[in-house]
């Protein structure tokens, strides 16, 4: 049996900023529309957290039973390492995704925007089929697009919509920025795993673009939020405060741009995620003010 600490590590807490950042940014955009609701924001956050934990356990299970994680460089995988029974990890994944579904249903019912059920169902299906099923889309280079849609566009715009009943250009800008950050986190992850993914037959976007192209993509993605900051700052000058988060990206940019490999890239995921969360928090404060 896996220990409590191993289960916590298996849930991959370092990925939680990918769930928290879009909700925080969405809250800021909702406040700017004078439509903030603390309980709807809380429910949106709980949905996002349950969803990403479910994704992580589902990936652990699906990759583990395929043997993809046998020579993994990154954090502990419960199934791949043999620390936990695959069925137990599957139950954890389904429980987390089920909780996301129940919380999402409650949010939709209380907000009255029933069409959002379709988006919620799509998010849950996307979480499972990322590495699950006979033809997981994560094995065909589509993972980054899914992350951009689910933890960028859907996360931010959904948070705004359940509160305001509409979205704004500010919300869209934040959604694209957070989505770009989330993509950068996954790109750094897949850059690290190129050798083992090729060996196991996992065709991620990184294996298709190659080492050099993947590094260029990462560097491009982390510049997008700050380019959007300049554009949005024309109408909201306080948004320029988000540039104080740029130094958080110095180490990951040096690691990725400097040719770091394997374990040298692990901190890049954490630091990119923290830069995303810090950017989202400061953007929310700026929009709220």
From TrEMBL:
<dbReference type="Pfam" id="PF01040">
    <property type="entry name" value="UbiA"/>
</dbReference>
<keyword id="KW-1003">Cell membrane</keyword>
<dbReference type="GO" id="GO:0046428">
    <property type="term" value="F:1,4-dihydroxy-2-naphthoate polyprenyltransferase activity"/>
</dbReference>
<keyword id="KW-0472">Membrane</keyword>
<feature type="transmembrane region" description="Helical">
    <location>
        <begin position="114"/>
        <end position="131"/>
    </location>
</feature>
<keyword id="KW-1133">Transmembrane helix</keyword>
<keyword id="KW-0812">Transmembrane</keyword>
<dbReference type="InterPro" id="IPR004657">
    <property type="entry name" value="MenA"/>
</dbReference>
<feature type="transmembrane region" description="Helical">
    <location>
        <begin position="226"/>
        <end position="250"/>
    </location>
</feature>
<feature type="transmembrane region" description="Helical">
    <location>
        <begin position="137"/>
        <end position="162"/>
    </location>
</feature>
<comment type="function">
    <text>Conversion of 1,4-dihydroxy-2-naphthoate (DHNA) to demethylmenaquinone (DMK).</text>
</comment>
<dbReference type="InterPro" id="IPR044878">
    <property type="entry name" value="UbiA_sf"/>
</dbReference>
<comment type="pathway">
    <text>Quinol/quinone metabolism; menaquinone biosynthesis; menaquinol from 1,4-dihydroxy-2-naphthoate: step 1/2.</text>
</comment>
<keyword id="KW-0474">Menaquinone biosynthesis</keyword>
<keyword id="KW-0808">Transferase</keyword>
<dbReference type="InterPro" id="IPR000537">
    <property type="entry name" value="UbiA_prenyltransferase"/>
</dbReference>
<feature type="transmembrane region" description="Helical">
    <location>
        <begin position="88"/>
        <end position="107"/>
    </location>
</feature>
<feature type="transmembrane region" description="Helical">
    <location>
        <begin position="42"/>
        <end position="59"/>
    </location>
</feature>
<comment type="similarity">
    <text>Belongs to the MenA family. Type 1 subfamily.</text>
</comment>
<feature type="transmembrane region" description="Helical">
    <location>
        <begin position="169"/>
        <end position="188"/>
    </location>
</feature>
<dbReference type="InterPro" id="IPR026046">
    <property type="entry name" value="UBIAD1"/>
</dbReference>
<protein>
    <recommendedName>
        <fullName>1,4-dihydroxy-2-naphthoate octaprenyltransferase</fullName>
        <ecNumber>2.5.1.74</ecNumber>
    </recommendedName>
</protein>
């Amino acid at each position: 049996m896996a220990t409590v600490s191993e289960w916590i590590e298996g849930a991959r807490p370092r990925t939680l900023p990918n769930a928290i950042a879009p909700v925080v940014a969405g809250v800021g955009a909702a406040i700017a529309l004078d439509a903030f609701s603390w309980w709807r924001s809380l429910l949106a956050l709980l949905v996002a957290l349950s969803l990403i934990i479910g994704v992580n356990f589902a990936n652990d299970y699906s990759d583990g039973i395929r043997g993809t994680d046998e020579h993994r460089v990154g954090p502990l995988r419960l199934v791949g390492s043999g620390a936990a029974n695959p069925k137990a990890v599957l139950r954890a994944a389904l429980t987390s995704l089920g909780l996301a579904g129940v919380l999402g249903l409650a949010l939709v019912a209380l907000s009255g925007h029933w069409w959002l059920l379709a988006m919620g169902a799509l998010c849950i299906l996307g979480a499972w089929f990322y590495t699950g099923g006979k033809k997981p889309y994560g094995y065909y280079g589509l993972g980054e697009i899914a992350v951009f849609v689910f933890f960028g566009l859907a996360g931010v715009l959904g948070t705004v919509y359940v509160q305001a009943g509409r979205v704004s250009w500010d919300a869209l800008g934040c959604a694209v920025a957070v989505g770009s950050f989330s993509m950068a986190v996954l790109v750094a992850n897949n850059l690290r795993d190129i050798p083992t993914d090729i060996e196991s037959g996992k065709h991620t976007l990184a294996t298709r673009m190659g080492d050099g192209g993947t590094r260029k993509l990462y560097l491009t993605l982390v510049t997008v939020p700050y380019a959007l900051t300049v554009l949005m700052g024309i109408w909201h000058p306080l948004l320029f405060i988000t540039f104080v988060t740029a130094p958080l990206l110095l180490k990951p940019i040096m690691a990725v741009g400097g040719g770091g490999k394997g374990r040298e890239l692990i901190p890049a995921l954490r630091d990119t995620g923290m830069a995303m969360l810090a950017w989202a928090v400061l953007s929310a404060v700026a929009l709220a003010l």
